[in-house]
Write a structure and sequence with these properties.
mainly beta, five-stranded antiparallel beta sheet, three-stranded antiparallel beta sheet, 1 helix
Length: 109
């Protein structure tokens, strides 16, 4: 590979950590792999949770996207990825689709 190919992210795994293949990988360089952020530290890529995305069932989701939704009876439950102040969070929203609740008098009629 040429220097223009960008960083090479792995070659050998040693003790669960990926060793750099080429010296051009510098401390602090990083890339994402699914829900993980891989960061170069002292010649080794170390994994951490990627806080820029949401992770659900080991799958990454970008901010402001729906992760999953389900409907049952009059309710819809939606799990979506929300970003606020540079922090992403999975948020559950439940909606009632049946309209207004009946009063006791309406139920008796």
């Amino acid at each position: 590979p040429s220097p223009d190919d960008g960083p090479v992210h792995h070659t050998a795994v040693q003790g669960g950590e990926e060793m750099h293949k080429y010296q051009r990988d510098k401390d602090g360089e990083s890339y994402t792999e699914g829900c993980l952020k891989m960061t170069c530290k002292a010649g080794v890529y170390r994994s951490s949770v990627n806080r820029a995305i949401c992770c659900y069932n080991r799958q990454p989701y970008l901010p402001n996207t729906t992760i999953t939704a389900t409907e049952e009876g009059c309710s819809t439950a939606t799990l979506y990825c929300k970003e606020e102040d540079d922090v992403t969070t999975a948020v559950l929203q439940v909606e009632n689709n049946c309209g207004e609740h009946s009063t006791e008098k309406q139920v008796q009629e």
